[in-house]
Amino acid sequence: MIPTVSLVALITAGGTVLLLAIGAGITGLYLLTCRIWPFRACGRCKGLGRLHAPNRKAWRDCPRCKGTGRRLRIGRRLWNHAERAKRNAI
Q1: What is the DSSP annotation of the chain?
Q2: Contacts of 11 (CB under 8 A, 6+ apart)
Q3: Rounded distance, CA 65 to CA 60, Å?
Q4: Half-sphere exposure of residue 24, counting CA atoms within 13 Å on the CB side?
Q5: Residues 8/11/14/18 CA torsion (nearest 10 deg)
Q6: What is the per-residue pLDDT across 15-64, written as a single tens digit (0 to 9) for each?
Q7: Using alpha carbons only, how large is the chain's radius of gyration in Å?
Q8: What is the C-alpha to C-alpha distance for residues 65 and 77, in angstroms, rounded to an integer?
Q9: What whole-number distance in Å separates Cα of residue 89 and Cα of residue 53?
Q10: Residue of 47, 46, 40 whose CA lies nearest to 75
Q11: Among candidates 36, 68, 77, which has minimal Cα distance to 50?
Q12: Model pTM?
């Protein structure tokens, strides 16, 4: 962790551009991972695709992921929305 004194010195010494570049780099890497791996494990069923039924004896499909165990990442949803908007603008 960076001490607050050095963080303040970094910002006041013209480090704002550096912090913006680091933020843009992290965002770019996240979008790249969303492009390569668009799905993540469902949080409700923990990627299994099934949950215990209310009687705890049987299994049923997870209603959130519809039994697949996978959910689309937020970044990938934004990517798909931007692609769809670009395609419909033409």
Answers
A1: ---HHHHHHHIIIIIHHHHHHHHHHHHHHHHHHHHH--EEE-TTTTTSSEEE-TTSSSEEE-TTTTTSSEEE-HHHHHHHHHHHHHHHH-
A2: 19
A3: 12
A4: 6
A5: 130
A6: 777 778 888 999 999 988 988 999 999 989 988 888 887 777 888 889 89
A7: 21
A8: 15
A9: 45
A10: 40
A11: 68
A12: 0.61
Is the CA virtual torsion 10, 13, 14, 16 positive or negative? positive
The identity of residue 43, as a single letter, is: G
Angle 80-36-17 (CA atoms, 0-180°, nearest 5)? Answer: 80
- Structure tokens given for 75: 């970044």
One-letter amino acid of 61: D
What is the dihedral sign for C-alpha 25, 27, 31, 36? positive
